[in-house]
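Hello again, I could really use a second opinion on something today. I've been staring at a protein lately and its backbone has me curious. Please have a think about how the structure follows from the sequence. I owe you a coffee for this, so here goes:
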Amino acid sequence: DAIHINIGLHGWPEGRILPGTYEPLTKAFVEVIRKHAPNAKVIWASSTPTFQKQNLKEFNPEINPIILEHNKMAAKVMSEYGIPVNDFYSELVGKADLVRADGVHWTPPAMEALAQIAAKSVLRELDEKRAGKAQP
C-alpha cells in the first residue's frame, strides 16, 4: 500500500551516474514502481549529509555537494510526480554528533529519528488513502 524510497547516497562516485542522467534515471525508477505497484502510495526520502572522517563536524567537501545536487534533482522529480518528500538531509544536517566515525552512516539515535519520520509519513499516507483523499 505504501513504498518509502531512498536512492542517491551510493551514486556519488565519479562515473557511477553519468552527467545528465540522474533525473531521467530517477523518473524511470518512479515509473517502474508505479507500473508494478500502481495502487501504492510512494514517499521519497532525501539522502543524508556526509562528513569528513578526520573532522566529523565538517561536511565532506567531495561527497556532500553531490548529495545536495542529487537531492535537489530528485526533489524536482518527486514534485513532478506528486510524491511527498521526507527531508532526511535537513533532519540530520545539524546533528553531526550522531554520525558514525566513517562520516556517512548514522548511530542508532539518528536512525530511530529517521524511522519515526518514515513511519509517521507512511501511516499518514495510508490514512489518507483509506479516506479516499490521496491518489495512488
